[in-house]
Write a structure and sequence with these properties.
There is one protein chain. The protein has 262 residues and is an alpha+beta fold. The chain has one domain: Sandwich (Jelly Rolls). It is built from six helices and 15 strands.
Length: 262
């Protein structure tokens, strides 16, 4: 992996070394203080260019266009709220998804199944271990956002989200987030409503460059990607790991996420 990744700056393959331990501690500190960490230029430029070339045919000819109207919870209803509550304001998300089985030889899938990568992520998240999904479609996906398309406000289902930006657009496509908008004990529906109308001064925008690995605690932090502007697409890989082996999506979930069950 050394020819693809900057393992000098980020020795994720050698966590027992002094520099490896320092990296893990730095990432843990960033997660605790900011709810995320970034490894900028994690992928070497030549490897990044090749990776984009490897996944682009699938993006252009075989990606699943996922267009949906949703609220910030991605739920049809919230028992505590009336249907017209402003926290349930409906927005739209559009992206184009490539599944793992369409890009098996790409750097995205090779990195996903490289044991040191999962071990590094587990260490930064203070987990005993993380396991790749036992699902041919899920696990490592590539999402593309084209002109006018966006990932709208939402909370993540999982505690952590791991992404690798493969290509940044010329404009738009910015990652915005509002840390700790809710807690496990307080849903803060009024605060959610204020966020959705743009009345929250604590919204932050994070500039991300291609080749950046991002780990983010999104369960209680609302976040979105603003609409892409221009012909240059936003292309991002999303990695999903679990604390137990053998996790697979149901056929219903695969159809919902990818438009097919197998």
């Amino acid at each position: 992996m050394e020819q693809f990744l900057d393992l000098v700056s980020y020795p994720i393959h050698d966590l027992e070394s002094g520099r490896g331990r320092e990296l893990v501690e730095s990432c843990r500190s960033e997660l605790a203080q900011r709810g995320m960490f970034n490894l900028y230029d994690f992928v070497r430029p030549a490897a990044l260019a090749k990776c984009i070339g490897d996944v682009r045919p699938a993006i252009e000819t075989a990606s699943f266009t996922h267009k949906r109207q949703h609220n910030i919870y991605f739920l049809p209803h919230v028992p505590d709220l009336a249907p017209d509550h402003p926290a349930l304001r409906v927005c739209e998300t559009v992206n184009h998804t490539v599944c793992a089985d369409q890009i098996t030889e790409s750097l995205v899938c090779r990195l996903y199944h490289w044991p040191p990568f999962a071990a590094f992520l587990a260490a930064t998240m203070d987990k005993t271990g993380l396991f790749a999904m036992d699902d041919p479609l899920a696990g490592a996906n590539v999402m593309t956002y084209r002109d006018g398309e966006a990932l709208n406000w939402h909370f993540d289902r999982s505690e952590f989200t791991t992404t690798l930006l493969l290509q940044a657009p010329d404009a738009g496509g910015e990652f915005q987030y509002r840390s700790n908008l809710r807690t496990d004990d307080d849903p803060n529906y009024d605060g959610v409503a204020r966020l959705l109308v743009g009345n929250d001064p604590e919204i932050q925008t994070m500039p991300v460059t291609a080749g950046t690995l991002n780990v983010f605690k999104g369960k209680n932090t609302a976040h979105r990607v603003t609409p892409v502007v221009g012909p240059m697409e936003r292309i991002i890989a999303v990695f999903s790991y679990y604390e137990r082996p053998g996790v697979r999506f149901s056929d219903e979930e695969r159809i919902g996420f990818y438009g097919r069950a197998s």
